[in-house]
Amino acid sequence: MLMRTDPFRELDRMTQQLLGPRTWSRPSAMPMDAYREGDEYVVAFDLPGVSADAIDVDVERNMLTVKAERRPVAKADDVQMELSERPLGAFSRQIVLADTLDTERIKADYDAGVLTLRIPIAERAKPRKISIGVGTGHKEISG
């Protein structure tokens, strides 16, 4: 058996013991990436072990809220837990979206434990060319 020590993991474990574990009533944040790809913003959330029906995505005005719940797996009566590091319970994340995003056309996909939201940039926020008119005649002011 190969064993290795990770001092940061030990620090995380001790911090969790001091601050207390996340519970159903005290949700933990979920890791995410956010980037722009062409004419849309992409936000990807890590939700391993969460079923798609346990994910809820809401938008109210410009506040995007993602909630998920990882439920315990049913175990037989004769199972004795030796180690449990995978967090269970509720996870949530809120993001304030810019007014330049089109919240009416958000697309959500869930694959391999990653929830990906694609938020298009609103037409009014895209760069556009302004044509310049040239005067055709001169006007004289008489007085």
Q: Notable features of this structure?
A:
143 residues, mainly beta, four-stranded antiparallel β-sheet, three-stranded antiparallel β-sheet, 9% helix, elongated
At a glance:
By secondary structure, the protein is mostly beta strands. It is 9% helix and 33% strand.
What features would you describe in this structure?
- With 143 residues, this protein is mainly beta.
- 9% of the residues lie in helices and 33% in strands.
- The chain is built from 1 helix and 7 strands.
- The strands form 2 sheets. A 4-stranded antiparallel beta sheet has the order 1-2-7-6, with no helix packed on it. The protein has a 3-stranded antiparallel beta sheet with strand order 3-4-5, with no helix packed on it.
- β1 (32-37) and β2 (40-46) form a beta hairpin.
- It starts with 6 loop residues before the first helix and ends in a 23-residue tail after the last strand.
- The model has no long low-confidence stretch (mean pLDDT 80).
